[in-house]
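Message: A physicist's question: would you kindly supply an amino acid chain plus fold tokens?
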Amino acid sequence: MTPADLLLRPAGPEDAEAIVAVHLASRGAAVAAGTMPPAAHSEAEVRTWLTGRLATDETWVAEADGVVVGYLRLVAEWIDDLYVAPSHARQGIGSLLLDLAKQRCPHGLGLWVFEVNTPARRFYARHGLVEVEHTDGSDNEEREPDLRMEWSPA
């Protein structure tokens, strides 16, 4: 897949079902691979919560052939979500979404990632984010060690 094959566009309410599907599939694959802890909420709770966030947060979708294959959700200068459907992983979609986040937050941005999620940590590090804080996980719902990463423009 090339960037020309992909459409990045702001998400609308009509994208909620597809975004939730990407979120659940991506998290499920990561849990199965041992790179993310099990979800703290049921699929129904995630669906309700994420659909509600689409009304208030800046959300973008990556679309290939009319199908949502990834999404980015920003809250101020924070990446709250960046997920790509497992069937479209490692095709540059995450990189394009992260580049979009940097464009939308030109003065810098941050995110939290689980310590066990080494693929995501390596991905973000390759794209210039640095680890700035490690926690024991007592402040997240999963109660799993996590870390804050930040990107600052050069």
